[in-house]
Amino acid sequence: MNSNLQQRANLEIMADGIEDVLAANRIVAKVIGGTVSHRLIKFDLTTSASTDQLRPLAGAIATRLSAGEVRIYKDAGAISLEIPVPEPRLMRITQLMEEVGSVPPQTAILGKDDRGMPLLLRIGGHVLIAGDTGSGKTALLRTMAASLAYYNRDLHFVIVDPKIRSLKVLSRFPNADFFECASDAWRYAANQIAQTVVVVDEISDCGGIPDGLFNISNLYIIASTQKPETVDHRKFKTCIVGRIEKHPATKKLADRGDMLLCYGSEKIQFQSAWLGATELKKIVAEVWQ
Fold it and tell me: What is the CATH number of domain 93-288?
């Protein structure tokens, strides 16, 4: 049996298990669909029962499915049940690029949403990525910069990494300049004529970003921080949030690139794509051609 047929068979067995547990507790329900992403398996239910009636059965369902946990919630009037994928697969940026094909100008690849659909972001303003250590914010920073460099050969990049710990690899791109000294980077960026993306790992390590840079029309800042409370969010058009222990709203997020895209009133949960050494080497080689 091929992998797709095997996965479908496994999902049908799980759906039957969910229905059996609910029926044993006198709840009539039927699994009518769902989605599979790198991070989650989601089942959609039709039932007259409320989430308050269903949630006490989450433990029994988890036991039946041999799942670590089960989350039951209501979304747009429908009831859904989620379980985490036991061993999430790496979503490599190069594979996602092949799937997406071409993208609009100044657009970065982020990853895939919980429906398994590619998620892109057009950089039309400044972007803030916030999260604790281990949340995946720096990895996402690299992924966004690499995808922008690949699809936009005319974009210039100013890479700012005072501790030289995570973004130095981006200096391999022909259209990128790397700075250890933040003040030198700010002066250099302010004098660029071409469309320029300033990539900053941990704003606090740089002593903050000068206000004047936010007002330069051809300059776009993509920055990460562990301390979002110290940053003026009004300067950033888009915020991407990973797990932050002090913020209850993010506790449902796992580590390793489980993110929430906040764009205006819209919020989209997604798994960020991975840029490893092999992927970086391939992308850099193609950009240099």
Answer: 3.40.50.300
Residue-range domain boundaries for the chain: 3-84, 93-288
The amino acid at 251? K
Burial group, residue 248, by CB count within 10 angstroms (0-12, 13-18, 19+): exposed
Structure-token pair, residue 97: 């690029």
Concatenated DSSP letters of 198-212: EEES-GGGGT---GG
What's the fold here for domain 3-84? Threonyl-tRNA Synthetase; Chain A, domain 2 (3.30.980)
Pick the closest to residue 216 from 183, 188, 239 (CA basis): 188
Closest CA to 141 of 177, 178, 116, 166: 166
User: What phi, psi does 101 have (nearest 5°)?
Assistant: 80, -130
Other beta carbons within 10 Å of 188? 16
Per-residue pLDDT reduced to its tens digit, 96-152 = 999 998 899 999 999 998 778 899 999 999 999 999 888 889 999 999 999 999 999
Q: What pLDDT digit, counting tens, does each position of 13-34 carry?
A: 999 999 999 999 999 999 998 8
Cα-based angle 209, 212, 215 (whole degrees, multiple of 5):
110
Give the chain's mean pLDDT: 89
